[in-house]
Structure prediction request, 945 residues.
Amino acid sequence: MSEEQDKGQKEEEAARQVVEPLPEQIAEALGDRVSEGGVLDGVVHITVPAEELADALRIVGFEIENSYSHLSDLCGVDRADCIEVVYHLFRPMSDEAVVVRVKLPRGNPQVPTATELWDTANWAEREAAEMYGVTFTGHPDPRPLLLPEDIQGHPMRKDWEYPEEHPYLSREPLHEDFPDVVGRVRVEAPPGREEEIEE
Amino acid sequence: MNTSIIYAIGAAVRAWSEEFCQGHGIPTLFVDILAWGIGAILVLVLALLVALFIIWLERKVSGYIQVRLGPTRVGPVGLFQTAMDALKLLQKEDIIPQGADYWLHLCGPVLVFTSFMLGFAVIPWDVKATLAANVDLNVGLLYLLGVTSVGVLGIVMAGWGSNNKWSLLGAMRGAAQIISYEVPLLLALVCVVMVAGTLSLTRIVEAQGPGILAWYVFKPYLWIPFIMFIICGTAEVNRTPFDLPEAESELVGGFHTEYSGMKFALFFLTEFDHMWFVGLLGAAVFLGGWQSPIGAADPIPGFVWLMLKSFAFVLLLQWFRWTLPRLRVDQLMGLAWKFLIPVGFIALAIVCVAVLFV
Amino acid sequence: MPVVRNGGRRDACPTTNSMETQTALPTEELLINMGPQHPSTHGVLRLVLTLDGERVVEAVPHIGYLHSSMEKIAEASTYQQYVPYADRYDYLNAMGNEFAYVRAVEKLCGIEVTPRCEYIRVIMAEMNRIASHLVYFGCLGLDSGAWTPFLYCFREREVVLQLFEDTSGQRLLYHYLRIGGLRNDLPAHFCDKLAEFLDYFPDRIKEYDDLLTYNVIFRNRLEGTGQLSQELCRRYSISGPNVRGSGIPYDVRRVVGYSIYPQLEFDIPTQEEGDAFARHLVRVEEMRQSVRILKQCLEKLPEGEINVKVPRKLKPVVGEVFERLESPRGELGCYLVSDGSEKPWRLHWRAPSFYNLQVLPELVRGAYVADIVIILGSIDIVLPDIDR
Prediction:
């Protein structure tokens, strides 16, 4: 890629990053609960602290006029310096969106649950909890959802490492031509975990 | 027609053996026992062969309805496919699940199979040709309903003995369904008994001849019982739309979920033989049994007519199965108790009036 | 140990309740596993059922048997490498998944595709919708005990799959859409074959309806089963034909108006009742609407290039995008976060089945065992879409 093109692309990139201020209606309703906020490509982005999240979701989702009451998606994102939980809210029957996000420390991320507002947050929160280690306080059913009970750590985190000793899978390559691709099924159990294989 | 080929052969063999026994000083009771034994074995073999044939027919009919071919490879038009399947099932390992009640698990299919095989004893195959020809049971219909309803015990035993909750649910459904539908079935048959004035199946068949118009199905006051008989017969055989005890999409396999090998084959054969059995009963009671449609001058043996009529029933049941969805359990019970039984009593009243005044 | 049932959930089971007061027999609730090996859980869904006779007291779904770390794989593969993985979530809607993914990447990179490409993409997505609804129709028939409709549906699905095979070389997982275009143009006979199919397909839909939809037993089974109120729809973010069966005309094709859908004429079929039969009718009507869309697409299909130039090393700007479109099962979302490298930083699927399935315990409470199968079939889930 030539330098000129590179430069052009960077300018374009800068143009795309332009953030407009929050719409008045949301800014007023939320007040100082918002730590960051803006409109990017027509989508309202709001970042709130964890302790304000429940209020912010309730206000944006139900209390303001023409509220954004359709919770389309809820997921976790590992931002390297923090763990984020992202809520994609839409106005019903429209494409107008609010993205509410909450930044959490990697050590002990905790947010209040959204299951009281939307039942559908139940499984999505369980998934985010097991994948990113986020604790959703007040969640009615905090069991793991997709992963086995005995998994170590939270696999969607960027610093998650393949466990050294796995009861079923070894670190041997699957195929001799591809030494990087490991995970052949164990024939013998690692020491001390024989019973698990028996089961 | 006062006699039939089957009767003639039987009588000739019997006369010869009685002569033989008398000549050698053997008591003739021995001949009786031997005759019953041979007759029973003949009927058993016939029933098994017919079951194999019906399974093949089922596959072909379903193939025809579903725009596909069905079996084509084994034998001409796949005719030996089911025989091969039966051989395969014979070789299969007999698995008894952990925690199952061994004896109940074993007795379930045996009881189901035996109970309905007993019913064949009173089926009039041809003129003077029931299995127990010289003991023509004068309460044949009652006996037949009695022994076949013992089969439900086998289903419950199989469901309970399997130590599987799906089997248990299937068995409960089976028990409820078969007992419920026995009542309207009985009402339908009682109508016929009133018209014929006898409980003996042979007499009922004899009362419907000669000629097609003498069949009970052509008597307007027996139309309702006839339709009731078809519905209840389908329910008795546990076939769609009444296949709840083994509803595959709900209960995995119902009461026979945990069966494999020959025990499963017994259930399977019984199910298909039962269809034929219902066909035979329906033919005897409503379609004139072995009576020929054109009257006594017909050279075709009555046995052939009986087979044709019973297979017409079988085809009808197969047509049902491949067309209709399944009822839900409350709808099934509702149909029996809230609709069929009241209708049965009304039909009975109509028949009473008809018998008195027509 | 026999336990007399306490009155905890009595209101849900009026029939058993009255039975109980009459006989006062000690009864026990039956705990039973439906799945993961069960013929009608549409894959490896496991429901732990608490039964009271034939009535469901409680149903707890357990998922995750097909979890395959697809979102983690996305973080380890480049943008182009990931397209075939997108097929494998909702295998009945492989084209639609690819469509969502490539649209998300294109939006992130600012790529505009050619008009012909857009048309072909919509044709593929709608054909896939027909194929998916045919599977739904046949499977609901199987669930209700009717075997034959399944075979009839697959007869027509075969035609659609054959067209897919002619186009992409594959029958289920196509890998046909590429970032910035398509793998190849349509084969020469495609439009004629498709037009021929579209001509006779509405008659075939009528045939299925005559065989199954208007069968009195089938209607009795479905009507009033699995009542989904509008309130439940909102609380559970239900989407797709399920929400339209409850009278809410929510269709992402209309609401977002992505791709060329604003230029096409089609209706959003809705039903007011909200039961399984309403959802069934909506899906059947949607097949007819898809035929309508496809006919318009074939008429308007422009000539021209199908691909735009896309750098081999695709590095989108730092940012994120949430792209929604309408899959046969509902609102399919693809949330893509880029850190400026050639691999996605985070990819998350808003899987419609995942959100729709959550309402199941509410729908089956107090229903019969046989109704579970019908309700599950009428929600129309695909398990890999749930587990990802």
Remarks:
- Strands of chain C lie at 30-34, 46-52, 55-62, 177-178, 181-182, 319-327, 330-338, 344-350.
